[in-house]
Amino acid sequence: MTQTNVAAVILAAGLGTRMKSAVPKVLHKVAGQPMIGHLLDRLTSFGTDRTVVVTSPDMSTVAEYVAPCPTATQDPPLGTGHAVLAAREALSGFDGDILILFGDTPLLTEETMRAMVEARRGKNNPAVAVLGFTPEDPGEYGRLVNESNGGLEKIVEYRDATDAEREIGLCNAGIMAVDGARLFALLDEVGNDNAKGEYYLTDIVAIARKKGWGCVTVETDDPDEVMGVNSRTGLAEAEAAFQYRLRLQAMEDGATLQDPDAVWFSHDTRLGKDVTIGPNVVFGPGVEIGDNVEIRAFSHIEGATVDRDAIIGPFARLRPGADIGADVHIGNFVEVKEARLDEGAKANHLSYIGDSWVGKGANIGAGTITCNYDGFFKSRTEIGPGAFIGSNTALVAPVKVGAGAITGAGSVIAKDVADDALAITRAPQEERTEWALKYRIRKKAEKEKEQKEAG
Ligand code: UD1
Ligand code: MG
Q: Which of 129, 132, 133 is CA-nearest to residue 121?
């Protein structure tokens, strides 16, 4: 970690009542990761000297999630200014710059964090740098009241703003960089005489100005970056904005997205070169895709690794632990979980392959199922290189099919099969000459009789 002389406080103690959820707001996910996780990732690459998350006592799940990052408890939550005060002890002795972030603002970039700290360290040594933005709809964001000379005079919360102040388009993103040597002197003076009866962090600007300390605004031209999620609608908007960012990045890095808007990435999806992705493909967390892989439409991939030149889908499902080798083909309605398929293996239609190893070049026929679960325990299936599993084979695990072996279509294989053997469990086929013809004649006569009797 680089030494930046910056500490960060992430505020996450708010009730998030507008989410109408039993889950704390900052644990709601964007691109498969809790919002606060995005901020922690950005701070890790930014390189803070200390980071502390402010939570409330009934949010043990937040503390568990952010561990080993320390938490400070705000009890009860009485506003954003009050929340930062809860971190006083955790920040004691630190006099560098303090970045204050909101746990519900997950799209913030490292670049902006850097710009904030630079601004705070800029000309005339301002006490506070505030991140501003001009959204299309300023809604209920706090408004930044600037002086004509460009300095920041105060922040007014929407509920406390006059009509004229509500006309201001420049809004408070909620992110601040504050001189650590002056932060708590400012917070100690914040009161709660306002519409919400809360201790607003935003008040420190006017307090600093009264003390003769400067305050500056850093403006981002990307309103999406500072979107604060307060409701489910907001969560969906943040998701859309983040997905847009991930799709753009994937294409810039050399992937072809046939319909970018219909591909859903996870925050951590890794793609090789010349990957082609069809429409309606969803990536859950923990996916790594190798070079020249083609992922066809309607595939769902999570916790899986796919090696070079493989073809996945359409309509394939790769679940956690799917380890797809080079040049493997996984076709429609094939589900793979916790299974390794070696180079060139094929499972093209309607299969479940779980807790398995499939050797090089093996062919898994349509409808093959690995019966890996007996209601109590999971067991493994091993299919040797070059084996040919006939259509509709049930492989009752634990079971091994040897290299080059064949299983007959429709077989239930519950015992190991030797290399190069044929295993078949079908009942022998019987044929009854003209049985079908006689059957139809008899049934037709019965039906006609019944209709006559009914009149
Ligand atoms: C806040 C800002 C507003 C800004 C907006 C940007 C204040 C007073 N208002 O409003 O100017 O435009 O964010 O998104 O700062 N929190 C605590 N403890 C509390 C209250 C809140 O930790 O007692 C945390 C929340 O968990 C959340 C963050 O602080 O992560 C912001 O709180 P929220 O209630 O969403 O503030 P906004 O009304 O959005
Ligand atoms: Mg908010």
A: 129
Distance CA 386, CA 80 (A): 64
Question: Which element (helix H / strand E) includes 234?
Answer: helix 232-252
Q: Among all chains, which residue has been given the structure tokens 């909620």?
A: 174
**Residue appearing with tokens 């500490």:** 7
Evaluate if pTM is beyond 0.85: yes
**Atom 29 in ligand 1: residue holding the nearest Cα:** 11
Cβ atoms 425, 413 nearer than 8 A: yes
Tokens of 450: 């019944």
For residue 79, report the distance from its CA to the centre of ligand 1, in Å: 7
Bridge-based pairing of strands 50-55 and 71-73 is parallel
Q: Cβ(202) to ligand 1 under 6 A? A: yes
C-alpha–C-alpha distance, residues 337 and 356, integer Å: 8
Is 329 a known active-site residue?
Answer: no
* Marked catalytic residue, from 82, 300, 329, 349: 349
Q: What is the pLDDT of residues 331-364, one digit of tens each?
A: 999 999 999 999 999 999 999 999 999 999 999 9
74 lines ligand 1 (CB under 6 A): yes
* 438/446 Cα distance (integer angstroms): 13
Domains and CATH numbers, the chain: 6-226 (3.90.550.10), 232-423 (2.160.10.10)
